[in-house]
């Protein structure tokens, strides 16, 4: 074998790198797809702008912070962020269009302990990459201050870690693209970011690094969903609603299986500071009137009161709530 050649692996081309113009590859891709027998994936490339600004009143635009983290583990109390990436972008709250990208940030931070082997295997981040590194806190805090909305693909995970590292995230309105986008209606089959990039954009990328994950998420927010509206438009609608956590206090004991199996309630023993009420509870309720009517009809044989927490995007995906109050259920409600 010549020293200037090497074996060609499955899926590779034998044409030497750089010997064929990019335009030729694009033409080849079109030819393959035109047969109907191939689907060609393209490497993801972030854009500086996703929708033109012509005719748009700049005063109506808002700023979204699309953020992702890589961490040493799953516990926001015991683990640390090692990779932080975000994109700031202008969006129109009425149309759901994303316009200019304003800022990108990528940074490492030393967790002060060895990175677990499984995390390095997943992300490629080694101890040497983060040694002595610290996030640019001034820059990150300035970006948080500019943002009207923070979007993460797994907000319950990222929000906990980010609030622990940068408490000013606690004051922001959050949305979760995994839970608030219309993936089910679109029958995507999965909500994993890599799959969605393939399914909706026919693109691939090196996943599990914070900035590129944030860039890909922003791109997905610009894609069209039901009713020819952007994915972001649907998320804005869902995120803008109030949701409720209903605590079915003093529910009859014989109703416990029905609450759990049929009604989607979970049990709290009241010992957790985050869930101090001993009762069956259900979070994420959108139709409060319907939920209270169901409890009165199917669970409580006589008039009773339940506790209801009201939650907005400022509290969602945390254990906090906007308000907590008693509400009547049952025949006399």
From TrEMBL:
CDD domains the UniProt entry points to: DEDDh
Keyword terms: Exonuclease, Hydrolase, Nuclease
Residues making up the signal peptide according to the UniProt record: none
Protein name as it appears in the record: 3'-5' exonuclease
InterPro entries in UniProt: Ribonucl_H (IPR013520), RNaseH-like_sf (IPR012337), RNaseH_sf (IPR036397)
Biological source species: Thauera sinica
GO molecular-function term, one example from the UniProt record: exonuclease activity
Segments for region (Disordered): 1-22
Pfam families hit by this protein: RNase_T
Source taxon at top rank: Bacteria
Residue ranges of domain Exonuclease in the record: 63-230
